[in-house]
Each structure stands twice: as C-alpha cells, then as structure tokens.
Amino acid sequence: MPPVVIFYLILLLLVSAVGMYRYHKITIPGKILAWSVIAVLLCNVLNKVWSAVYHTNAPILHVESIIEFVFYSLVFYCLFKNKIIKTIVVVCIIILTVFFCLNAMIWQPIKSVFPTNIYLPTLSLFTIFSLLLFRQMLLYPLKINIVKQSVFWFNAAMLFYATTMFFNLGMTNYYSQHKWDAYIYYFWYFILCTFHVMIGIALLMDNRETQAGT
Amino acid sequence: MEKVTALVYLTAGLFTLITGFIIYFVVLYRNRQLKNKQEQEKRESSFRQELLKTRIEMQDQTLNRVSREIHDNITQVLSFVKLNLAQANMPDEYQRAEKIAESRELVAQAISDLRDLSKSLSLEHITRQGLVKTIQAEAARLTKSGIIRAVVITEGEIIPLGEQRELVLFRIFQESVNNALKHAGASDFKIVLQYIPEMFILTLEDNGSGFSPADAGKGEGSGLKNIENRAALIGADAAINSAPGEGCRIKINLNPLKNDHYPDG
Question: CB distance A138–B14 less than 8 Å?
C-alpha cells in the first residue's frame, strides 16, 4: 500500500477517534460529521480489500459517494436556519439519492463503472450550500472568535473540498492524455487529507455548551 | 515543460483564490461582529437611559400621589383627630370616652394609610412583590379611592419576567391609567395578564372617550407613543386600538424566551 494511502487512513482513524472521544460534548451536526468520518474510513478500508479481491473498487465508490453526500447534506441541513433552504436540502437529498440509484443501475453500472456522473451535481451542491452557509454566518454572527467556531471549519473544509475536487476532476482527462496519473493521484490525496484535517479541527472546536450560550 | 508550469500556476491560482476568499470572509465576519457589538452597546446605553427616565417618572408620579394622599386624606383625618381631642375636656364622661375612641380609630386609619404610602414609595416594591401583585395593589388602591373601578384578571402560571422588564411593564400600566383618568375620563379599567407558554400578554382596557387613530400621535397621544417605545425597548410589541366613544385597548405581547437581544432576555 503506498505511504500516502497509509497516511490518509491513519488520519481518518485519528479524526474518527477525535469525533468519538468528544461525542458527548459535540452538537448534533458534529455527531453526524463524526459518523460520516467513520463511514468514510470503513469505505476506504473496504475499498482496499475489495480492490485486492475483485480487482475493482467501483461498487464501494458508488456506495461511498451516496453516504458522503447524505451525511454532509444532513450536516448542512442542521446548520441552516432558513426553513426554505432546509427544505431544498431535503429535496436535494431525495432527488440525488434516486439519481445515484438509477445511475448505478443504468448509466454507470455499479459492478464495473466509476460513478463520475454524480460528482458534478454533488460538488456543485456542496459549493452552493457552503456559500449559503457563509452568507448565513455573516447575517447572524456569533460573539465567539470565528477560528473557534466549528461551523467555520466545516464550511471552509466543504468549500475547499468541493472546489478543488471539481478542478481535479475537470482536469482528469487532460492529465490522463499527458500521462500525469501520479499528479491526479497525489493531488486527490492532498485534497482529501487537507479536507479531513479541517474536519478534525471542526470536531475539536465543536462544543454543545458554547454553541448554546452564544 | 511549459504545460507543467501552466498547470502549476493554475493550481496555485485556485488555492490562492480559495484562501483569499476565506481570509476575506474572516475579515468581513470580524467587522460584522464589531458592528454588532457596537450596536448592542448603543442599545444597552439607550436602555439604561430610558430605564433611568422611567424610574424618575415613577418616582415623580409616586411623590405626586403621596402629596395628594397627605393633603386629601391624612391631613383631613389628623385635623379631625385634633378637633376631637380639643373637645376631650367636655364634662360628660360618656361623650369624652366616645371622642377618644373615635380619635383612636382615626389615628389607626392614618397609621394604616401612612404604611400603605411608605410601601408605594419604594421602587423596590415591584422587585420584591413582582408585577402581578404590584398591579393588583395599585388597582385596589385606585378602586378604593373611588376615582376609577380597576379589575385585574390573571391567566396561566405566573412566571417572573425579569426586574427591568417588569419595571417597564409597570410604567406602561401607570401611563395607561394616567391616560384613562386624565384624558379619557374612564370609569372602568380592566387589566388582563396572560401567561401562556413562551408568551406574556398584558391587556389594558378602559371605557373612556377613546380617540381616533389619526389623533394618536398628536399632543396627548405622546403618552401612547411612549408606551410603544417602551414596549419596543424590552422587545415587546404594543398594539393600541381605539375609536371615539369606544374606549381604548392596549395590548403588549412579549416572548420572554425569544427576545435575547433585549435586557432580561
């Protein structure tokens, strides 16, 4: 297993441990986030096993994409205050879950083809949700320092993840044509590691009592 | 090689853009926090000033009432006692005893009136007794004086609303009593205090001459404007309904749990 993958798995394990250790102190969105990291860790471990046994990880990527989307969207749902935006998030979860299932059955069969169709809508939605949450933060600023707010770290992580991954996926064909597969590989892990470090900070900063008192 | 350089620049540009956006957001957020803090300080300062004004007005009104009570009631009673005692040297034993007994009763009444007055002199009364009991005592005093018949109705489980809020609400009550007596010439005054979950409603109703909503902002209507301003000060809504010949109805709605930007919130 390449060192970067081992590093990424250890990082996921650490962030999961932070989430579980602080589980009783964190807010509901924090709890969902903690479970999402555990789900991503399990999917990544399964991914490696599946690849070794069946020589493809497409089915795991299909499942992981749905799980990630639902978990992160639920976190956004809990963080938004506006009822209309909350409803839109729920509608997006339902529509995209149906789309994921259809995609896995019809357009990009779950057994063999990677679920690239779903990255465009999910990453676009994460960018929009993230910008809306930044707007909400500006409309209702809390008294505590912004770098001590878990919502800021989560939102910054989501914006970073959605935009850089979008860029990376957009450039994939170009990299492949020029045989820069290593570049895709390392850039991909760089994005994932940075994203999970920020999620780890968000879990460390999350505090049920502080949020209630502001 | 040129393509690699271009790609590196493109990637670096993307990261700079995201980092720049986040830094810009942090600066914007801090400015907003600072602005909010300044606004809150301004609001608190304005509230303190208004509260001081309310206290002064309450003291002024209380002193006026005390002065009136001493002049109209206690002085009269004591003068009567003085007159009785002047006649105490009359030869008839029975009449003398009767005069002394009468004087003792009058002195006891004067003592009782003075005790009531001393209670109402203290602004801490509302803090100790709470809004409901203070309004009930004031209503009883008004009815006893014969100038107006005041009725207090309370609904729901009484909960404290906070000292400053109760002080402002009591001042609103005093202001509306003043309006009912001085301008509306009302004979009945109804006070309803409703404590329903997450909401407190104070309704003040008189059967006076009423007024047209168009006249509400003019002259005597400034008292009503004061009521609206004071309600806003504690995060409450004031609705004033009146029509010529139909009395006046003032309704104050306050959510004690929701209005956390206001004092006592």
Answer: no
Each residue of A92-141: pLDDT tens digit?
A: 999 999 999 999 888 888 877 778 888 889 999 999 999 999 999 999 99
Dihedral Cα B21, B25, B26, B31, nearest 10 deg: 140
- Domain locations in chain A as residue ranges: 3-212
Give dist(CA A31, CA B240) in Å, integer. 48
Q: Which amino acid is at B169?
A: L
Q: What is the pLDDT of residues B238-252, one digit of tens each?
A: 999 988 888 999 999
Question: Which comes out higher in pLDDT, residue A54 or B150?
Answer: B150
Mark yes or no for CB contact B22/A156 under 8 Å: yes
Interface test with A, best of B4, B7, B260 (most A CBs within 10 A): B7
Task: Decide if pLDDT at B256 tops 80.
Answer: no
Checking if the pLDDT of B204 tops 70, the result is yes
CA distance B242 to B208: 10
Picking from A141, A164, A178, the nearest residue to B14 by CB comes out as: A164
Report how far residue A50's alpha carbon sits from residue A60's, in angstroms, rounded to the nearest whole number.
8
pTM of the model: 0.67
Instruction: Record the tokens describing residue A190, joined without a space.
Output: 């760089």
Per-residue confidence (pLDDT) for residue A214, from 0 to 100: 43
Domain B130-265: CATH architecture, name and number where available: 2-Layer Sandwich (3.30)
User: How is chain B split into domains, by residue range?
Assistant: 1-121, 130-265
Judged by average pLDDT, the poorest of A34-48, A135-149, B123-137 is B123-137
At A68, is the pLDDT very low, low, confident or very high (cuts 50, 70, 90)? Answer: very high
- Is A54 within 8 Å of chain B by CB? no
| Prediction ipTM score | 0.84
Question: What is each CA distance from B190 to B143, B149, B194, in whole angstroms?
Answer: 11, 8, 13
The residue type found at B82 is K
| Whether residue A33 has pLDDT greater than 50 | yes
CA-based nearest residue in chain A for residue B37: A143
Q: Is the pLDDT of residue B197 over 90?
A: no
Chain A residues within an 8 Å CB radius of B14: 163-164, 167
Q: Is B122 helix (H, G, I), strand (E, B) or coil?
A: coil
d(CA B60, CA B39): 31
Contact yes or no for A138 and B22 at CB 8 A? no
Contact with chain B for residue A113, Cβ under 8 A: no
Residue B196's DSSP bridge partners are: B199
Interface of A with B in 166-195 (CB under 8 A): 167, 171, 178, 183, 187
The answer to whether A160 touches A198, Cβ cutoff 8 Å, is yes
Report the chain A residue with the minimal C-alpha distance to residue B27.
A146
What residue type is A165 in one-letter code? M
